[in-house]
Q: What sequence folds into this?
């Protein structure tokens, strides 16, 4: 059983560009969350999707947007990239998160903005 | 969600038990204590969670004080592969589209 997968593993973009990161949840999971982890810090919550709707959002600007597809996979889009967006982007999936099941994390996508 | 306080780092000898403390003095009655760990350059890994009773699984044990203001994660026989950053998180479960609010965590280094 495959766990959470993310693509690509590494990405280099130029300031001002747009980027799309992808996540496939663990089999059977219906909820996807995205986190940003800057170097040397803990992950910071971006947003969470369930039934193709954004359910909760962290303190991130509108440049960060997402989508969940009917097969539960998800995308994270970041527009007008800034140097400060350089980070490890983590996707986590869970089953019926509101009932307290643990979140399973993917290996992350390392985004570098130059 | 309540805040947590953890020591920034600790060392542990291989084969010995590692006891990781966490303070959550403002925890509410409906908040659970979660532990995750993150090995360098990997995604965080769930370890264990609990409400008020002690919990044990194949990875670790979680001891929560009676007043629930602090807890201890116990790795019974630490190995070199347990070297990681360990995060203690408290959060509401029911009725919450919950985010995990990570702090700085505790960097645990297991030495031979």
A:
């Amino acid at each position: 059983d495959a766990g959470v997968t993310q693509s690509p593993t590494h990405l280099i973009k130029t300031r001002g560009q747009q980027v799309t990161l992808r996540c496939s949840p663990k089999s059977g999971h219906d909820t996807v969350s995205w986190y940003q982890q800057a170097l040397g810090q803990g992950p910071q919550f971006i947003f969470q999707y369930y039934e193709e709707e954004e359910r909760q959002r962290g303190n991130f600007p509108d440049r960060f947007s997402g989508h969940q597809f009917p097969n539960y996979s998800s995308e994270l889009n970041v527009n007008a990239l800034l140097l400060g967006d350089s980070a490890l982007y983590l996707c986590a999936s869970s089953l019926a998160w509101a009932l307290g099941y643990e979140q399973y994390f993917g290996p992350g996508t390392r985004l570098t903005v130059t | 969600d309540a805040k947590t306080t953890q020591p920034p780092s600790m060392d542990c000898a291989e084969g010995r038990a590692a006891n990781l403390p966490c303070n959550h003095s403002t925890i509410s009655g409906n908040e659970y204590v979660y532990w995750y760990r993150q090995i360098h350059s990997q995604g965080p890994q769930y370890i264990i969670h609990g409400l008020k009773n002690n919990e044990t699984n194949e990875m670790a044990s979680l001891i929560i004080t009676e007043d629930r203001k602090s807890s201890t994660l116990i790795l019974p026989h630490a190995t070199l592969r347990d070297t990681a950053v360990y995060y203690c998180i408290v959060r509401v479960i029911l009725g919450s589209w919950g985010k995990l609010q990570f702090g700085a965590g505790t960097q645990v280094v297991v030495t031979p």
Q: What stands out?
A: The radius of gyration of chain B is 13 Å. DSSP finds no helices and nine strands in chain B. The CA atoms of residues 36 and 46 of chain B lie 5 Å apart. Chain B touches chain A through 24 residues (CB under 8 Å).
